[in-house]
Specification:
Blueprint lengths: L2 E5 L2 H8 L9 E6 L3 E5 L2 E5 L3 E6 L13 E6 L4 H6 L7 E2 L5 H16 L4 H25 L5 H16 L7 H8 L3 H12 L3 H19 L4 H7 L5 H12 L3 H12 L1
Antiparallel strand pairs: 1-6, 2-5, 2-6, 3-4, 5-7
Helix pairs in contact: 3-4, 6-7, 8-10, 8-11
Length: 261
Amino acid sequence: MRIIKAGHLKSELFAFEAERPSGKNEYTVLHFCTAFELTLNGESFRIEPHGCVICNIKNIGNFDGCEAELEWFRISEDISELLVKYSLETDMVYYPNNYEFISKFVRKLETELVTKNAFYEEICEAYLNEFFVFLSREAVLHKQDVSVDPKTKEKFDLLHQRLSMDYSKKWTVDDMAKLVNFSPSYLHTVYKRVFGMSPLSYIINLRIERAKMMLIESKMPINEIAENLGYSNTTHFIRQFTGKVGISPLKYRSKHSTDKK
């Protein structure tokens, strides 16, 4: 794998993100030193200070107008196997207890990328493995600090039911957090622990399953299905459906229409 850029200044990130690759799995790792409203997969949610996100660059929203202080680096190759190895996920916010290691890591990367001394790429790759080991370890420690008592579990069961009934609403993590009186970061961590996925991932899964039914059982146009499911952008719906199912909505409808004959 190859790390091609690292920095502390958001202005450098803006310039670098302006030229996004197409059809490639490239990743940007972001560490927010201050709170920030981030958009991933078309969904916006608030990241508390020292949240760290591993983003597939194709899913991240625009950074125009960003006022957050952040540290970041970009990887130009697929790291999916590495993420599986260390039990990490893309597009998920991690809150490491010892977040200082991220700053030290980014500074070491910057030095290697600027000086380009002998074997700097091998050193950067070693640093990257070290980073993911530390992030995974810190994420596990943070998760162990989260306890779920019966009353909390009951609140989350009610939230789960609400999401199941009202999945077409344009939910944000902040909206959900208000329903159970928790911070957005605590909500995200506890919900994932209780239900095995993030609340936004659960809503996406519900929408995709409902979309499958509507594609098979109705002749409703794709844009109307997207609108009924709470998507304001049909292209985003098609991209999300294709990513989850493996084929586009039109191909899914055609395939199952043929199967019914």
